[in-house]
């Protein structure tokens, strides 16, 4: 792909009347160049068992070719037709809440043989029908695929087989999972109980891990099918989504996206986020960084909001700001869900570029301006490469572990709260970061490694963190890291297991804080704060205390420590506290790691990278409703959209929700 | 009926010991003249299949005849005997929550053939037994009949037939309901899925409408049965109830009462409402106006609170005030639920006129005073006719639509919140109103028509509203009106669909307000407010702006507009705001409509009408704990209960929770 | 037992590696002398049907004997093995929520014949295997046994039989339970519906009572089995637990512990409570007093927190304070749940004496100090006998009644809230009390009897209260007492039924207060307060008003009255109000009852009793983070732990969370 993709999901199927010519013309006027189609339309593609109807698809492909638009085709398997639901009792997923009813998307059992048989047929038939169309640039496998909590017969049988493969010795299995507790011991695989009733966190977490593997297996199977048909220059992707808190929030609990992405050519995702006064760019940055980490390359934004949900209608200027925010993180596309708002069913108030009236509206008009800019300047912005000096290690296993044993007061999203707490501090301080995962074996490329709440980890990961510090790395690791192994079995020795050496501290007790203040020491002298959610009663061994508890009984313990170990430095954070206090800590530590931070902070955000011409691109954003100024201290450049030179040392003022993109000249 | 009815529900069946003589004497002492019996007593009437026992009923009828009391007989079908529940697997309703268990009333499937067979037999046997009793003045069909969420086999089959009748063409059906979305298309009626799983708002809303029709059909069937036996001078009624928010709140979602009332002779209902410091009369007024609208005539209060629920124990004087409030709205009866408090089971703390001790208590003693007054002055108050110049149009379809797609922050009762918001403003300003429904074809009798949130409406209704204004009417229409058609398919053109001409404005975007102030213009200059829940970004075309948004980005748009159209005037309200701001708007508009409002407002409330002697009756209420005064500026009259003349222009002071009823002399 | 028991639950089964020797040595170092084992380990004892494995058990018994530790053996029946769950469809309890899944403990149907058959075999096999071991001092039947909401086939059949036994006459049954209401009448026992659907509070309450009887029957059956094997000097106990509100709160709803304890030799229980700044001792006192009341003797603390839950980690000093708090209430043991923290499954964060790292930690070190003290001074503290002059009457039936018909705003624990409200006032005022239950026939031993919210009571209990006052007793009885009979049938006469004579007042109306202040009269002149949750509109007959409502309409009524009756005095409390106001009332009344209260109040708490040597032991606790002083005005004594004399009249200062134990010398 030699240009940025700009477009929207388009559903000819959902139209109340024929709009295809008008819509294509409106898209072209907006300089859109891609539509994403066919995902979730199985019932129109195959209205009855074995009866196929490609009318809508052909219309869209014809129109795309006529108007010179690219097309991304989604396989339609994430929403099944009504007739298919009646083929077998086991197609609709049986979950913790019992059998699913037909109606919703994503309600099928992705391990069900009947479902898989029909899914294969529709994919093959579809691919056969379209494989020669020139407008198709790529394929999206399914959509936002997850395991949907399947715990039906087939899935549970597969789980027992999966356990048997891991544990030939039942006694070892019982010991590792602690099944003697509450008489849960399994002494014969045929006694294995319905997993839905388990109260064993280790077993429940293993089922979650297994379920994530089902997603990887399913997507790999689809990828193999599509790959049989697709042309060399067409890509395979997925529309990954993120943990959802009314918007995209963090690491996806139900998919190991790092594993699942292996069968794909390019990572794709959707990112939805607050807007208006709540637009911060933090979700675009964090989720975008995950997406960039999946293939360690640029990625596609396959869906993001145009008008979006009720609260998201962008202020004038924000639609453009949001698009450039994505590009500044390494996205090579901005695609809206969706072109037009839908007139029936569930998501009628998740609005597209057009409202239900199909007329030009302020959002559309801003998209037109954006499209023109992307067309003119896109070649400067495409394939932005980042060479970040900081990285954050995230872990699905730790996420699941903290779902089982959450922080007090953060029961719903302990892990992502912990991860976002640290990641957003880096974001506010203008430290760009890459995302690593436990399968990454080399951290040595980074000056700063941040490991939030790595609750569950194999020995090898912990030992790699230790090595990283010994060899000169700078590590920030936060509360409850190193607590349990990969099966959520708590390590039966000094905490934090495997990290006491590099961190130079230990603890064996923790509690929930009530009125526990924090007091800075040494480099953080004068800094104060309030402990939240969870406090570990840390005893420094070789470490220096950066923050200690200001409390009649816990005052003897440290909250945050810093330890020289080998050639490196390790910071252990044993509790939560205010963002401002954290920013002071992270800024101090980043400087120790040799990172040079800009003089400004959030709401002024700087993102940078190198374009294909080897030129440095710098995005400056003002995520606030107030004008903001800063000194441009990079080498002389050109402000791209204005085509105006910017001299080093000049003072730049950004309007409310304003931004500048400056290409360095030297 | 030539006199007001005053009485209570009476259950000889529930008595811990024989009280019938004492109770009748106590009722007579209170000048009560009617009891309502037999509803919900199937298990005593038919203790075993085909074994009938009329002991309790005969005792009550005998006593009623001895003490010259009227009787209203309820058919006992809304609570089934334990033996009947065992007759078939499908008698107890299967709902979204699965099969119902026996115990509760209103848990049966009203489409179940077995239930209907036994219901017919008990009705016929009962009617045969009592049809010659002279004390019976009327029959109540079932009680608070609804559909109970039935989604069993029979109901779902009926639903598919009902759809087939409407849509001979499956493609048209799929298009109208937007079933292509998420692959929900139905290409063969035999594929029709379990409606309980649907995520299609249009389909779900249609099932709600269908379910309301089940209620109409059921009541019509019962009415036909009862009519075979009843005497000419006996009436048929129903005890309709209202959307329940710990008290009667607004339009009933589960019944189209306008349709269902067609098979009845007189409308009946129950109204429960807050009391003590929270007594405002607003529920009595709004729900009473609905009841009055059902047959466009006077109605029966078949149930209201005596002591009622814990919070409702009336302050001294309030029991009388409440009764007169009902009469002032056009009720011809005040009947309590219930005579005595119940000693077992669920509603023991929903107290009657008597406490569990059966002794005289302050509530009973106040009922005695009330009964004496009603006897003495009832002929002046009976059959009060109203000739209101204002009307409010309410719609079950719009209610369901907003249940599917609610206002932000008003998820539980979007529609009735919107309706009450406007209706209560009229109430506070002393504008009495009638209630219309979408089946009403002529609005021309009214100077002011208020249409709250008419989210779902056929073209014809919208066009009637347009015509109304063109022909000189004054219309207030509020946010989200004209958004979707009768199948909840959003109109694919300029919003508000069908109303842009008369309202002289349009919008295509909306959002949830955060810190969005309102600023008055023109006639509302100086008025301020804060937008709530939902704001439409209205652009006036020919309209004048009355309120605009005071906001850096939405300031370009209007919140409330006013437009001269034809001979009339239309006010469009594009958001919610404070009551005080609304009162200013409504007062302005009502004056434009030529209504003359009293100089006083809530808590001083004036209700008026004309009695059978052609005399004007005016009720003045002080709904507050503070004394209040006003100038009586109607022609000279008589204060009825005091039998004192009141001269025009005299100053009247009402005690806390006090009232006066003045009959105009001229 | 001639010494205090000090120890912990110990699970060799749950160990990640062999720790038994080390653990025994650490326990001995802490002067622990008892372990509690085997409860909940069925799946290790009988890994497959009929295959028994006593390895873990034998190891623990061998070690105990080697280290001279006592052992309490729990029968393992409260958690079933996975293989057993598959033996029958009816082993796992069917409850209101449907069938249970395997995984959780306490999920079986304790009436299921298959379960009982296998339970008997494991108990017999276990007893046979261990009965000669010398270290075993006693047996615990099952653990925290309850009925688990069982409403399966067997349980429901038993319920109908149980009703038939009580009611040979179906009409009498229908009348007593008020089943005519909503057509719930049962005219043939074969019509009896699934109890899970009932809306009849009387019937639901009777099922609760019946379910409590199932627990008594089950424990009695187990006791009989164990008694066949156990030696004369071994005791049988149970680990009773209490109504749970994140901690032990009050009377257990699901067990009639007074009945169930009859088959045991000594009462045992677990008490968990808030700690850190929230440690008040109130739960230890209230629940401990219930435990002491079960056999009217000393009791065992079989479980309490060491580190416990996250919020409970004790401040330095609190572990000892907590232990002595238990002893001061009459406990003869302090046993922790559990020795070590568990590395897998559900309760990993319910921490034991040791953390997961098994190392010495502050909690363990404090346990060592405590163990040494208990060893040295235990003989002075053992078998503490109390001769309290006050008693509180608690009732399972009243608890259930208020679960059905709760106080407004206290829906979840109306009864225990009401009981704790009064009991905690006595506690704060340093009035120690015994706990009585409705089966106690003699109240005459007490100068002060407090009866909270006795909502449901047989005539005989009410008449005993009346007699108590007449004969000179001082009774405090609170709102809603005497309202309904033992079947939750509301008494159909003047309220409070059966108490109007002794209390000299009556009421027939009540409501929820809004802004209702309280005003003291007579002895309480000057006292003020605010009414909460529920107010009865009390009319004094012969009584004097102590508190009246300060309100424009309810001002005519009394809130609290006091009445001389016979030789006694009765105080009726008709509402709830602030603790401070209550303390003033209770202090006044206690003095009327002739009790002499210490000059100090909470947070300074005095508990006392007589030890086996006939010496008076007084515990003085300071439940606060601030130093506190008081005058020791008892006869000269010895401060035990310090071995220092304390002279009468000397001033004693207690450190924050400090205490003293003084043995009187004379």
What does this protein look like?
The structure is a homotrimer of 666-residue chains. Chain A is an alpha/beta fold and 666 residues long. Among the domains of chain A are: 1-32 and 238-384, Alpha-Beta Barrel (TIM Barrel); 390-592, Class I glutamine amidotransferase (GATase) domain (Rossmann fold, 3-Layer(aba) Sandwich); 604-664, Golgi alpha-mannosidase II (Immunoglobulin-like). Helix content of chain A is 30%, strand content 21%. In chain A, the strands form 9 sheets. In chain A, strands 15-14-16-17-26-25-24-20-21 form a 9-stranded mixed beta sheet, sandwiched between helices. The longest helix of chain A has 29 residues, at 201-229. In chain A, 61% of the residues are buried. Chains A and C meet through strand 19 of A and helix 2 and helix 4 of C.
Shape of chain A: globular
Rounded to an integer, what's the Rg of chain A over CA atoms? 26 Å
What would you call the quaternary organization?
homotrimer
Could you estimate the helical fraction of the residues of chain A in percent?
A: 25-40%
CATH level 1 class label of the domain at 390-592 in chain A: Alpha Beta
Q: What composes the largest sheet of chain A?
A: 9 strands, mixed
Report how far apart the termini of chain A are: 27 Å
Mean pLDDT of chain A: 97
CATH superfamily of the domain at 390-592 in chain A: Class I glutamine amidotransferase (GATase) domain
For this structure, the CATH topology of the domain at 390-592 in chain A is Rossmann fold
The total strand number of chain A stands at: 34
Category from helices, strands and their pairing of chain A: alpha/beta
Largest sheet strand order of chain A: 15-14-16-17-26-25-24-20-21
Q: Strand fraction band of chain A?
A: 15-25%
Individual helix count of chain A: 17
Unreliable spans of chain A: none
Catalytic activity (chains A, B, C): Hydrolysis of terminal non-reducing beta-D-galactose residues in beta-D-galactosides
Domain Glycoside hydrolase family 42 N-terminal (chains A, B, C): 10-376
Protein name (chains A, B, C): beta-galactosidase
Enzyme class (chains A, B, C): hydrolase
